[in-house]
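Data availability (excerpt). The following record was deposited with the supplementary files.
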Amino acid sequence: MARILAVIPAMNGILHSTLEVARRLRQEGHDALIGCPWDLLGKVESAGFEYVQLEAIAPDPAPAPEYAPGDGRLRRATRALRTAPERRRRALETMERGDLVEAVAGHRIDFLLLHVELHELALTAAHHDLPFTLLSQWYPFTRRPGVPPIRYGLIPKPVGPAGRLRLERTWARQRAEIWWIRTRASLRSLGCDRRAALKAYARKTGFPLRRWAEYSWLQPFSYRDTPVLSMTDAALDFPSDPEPGVRHVGPMVSADRPEELDPAEDARLTRLLEERDRTGNPLIYCSVTTFGQGDTGFLGQVVEVARRRPDRLFALGLGGGLDPETLGPLPPNVCALAWAPQLRLLAHSALSINHGGGNTIHECIHFRVPMLIYSGGQHDQHGCSARMAYHGLALLGDRAHDGPDQIEARIERVLAEPSYREA
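Predicted structure:
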């Protein structure tokens, strides 16, 4: 059987999904290895898989030159212009990933699964004729008839002139925003940014630029005809023609992964779960995004709902970005955890209040936990939230306008309506 190397970024959600892919490949008789341009050695080896360390990918391959403290704007601009050709040359050199070629040879790799954001590795693999498929945790994000951009929370309506116009305006908005982001980056870097370096490397190696989808949501670009394994379920997407080259393999939920918890927090959570078993009061698990600092204002409103409803139990997962102490004194029916054991909590929850992240919504579906989603607005969270609402798996809240009254009403609606659990 084949030796397959999956190369991913160092993000927990992607790692958990990829470990599940590796387990399933192993069950089919393949040797599955996991590599990363950053350090995942301990996490991968503790899961029982061979690890391959690659060199880091620099988000800025040719940073601006250093300036003296007294340099004014004109001197800085002159120095940046003078050094730009050399910086572009250095940036181009970083695009060729000889470490990937060596890893394939040294570990006798037959096939590569390359995360869709690791463009340097994908272009290197294409240049050296290394067999590979892209790996994505997202729903398809290139343009399809009747489907809005995944970065927005638009839910498709019945076909009509107004609906088509709204859809066209949304795609035009995304194109304009991406154009501005790219233009500003190019002007600031004088053509030394990562996208410019990737394009130069593609030209140098003969990779046809027509295969790039320039204005898709994924930055700095995505691919038109390179095969992609999407760790999503096509049945949970909006209705549309299949995306060419995309194969949905279903959500990769690693339901038996170990979850470490601080002993003091573990004791508090255990008491909350025992209270649930003793009283029969429903447990509501509220989690915030792990991509940034949690929204203390929103969490404070959830805590206020908990004060009003002592017959509801609340576990707050703060995503590692907040200290529970910042929430102040909590009522006895609330347990705030700096980093929550999500699988353990979902196995006992009657409702999940979450941010619409792809891994969280798929784990909720796995455990048949209905959702109240207050989208975090990052990456694909608006699009994931809209898909869950479209299929009746979630009720959407308005983070900007909902107060304790509205949050409580939405919680009670989801708990009372069996359709959210049965969808």
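Summary of structural features: Residues 283 and 349 are 5 Å apart (CA to CA).
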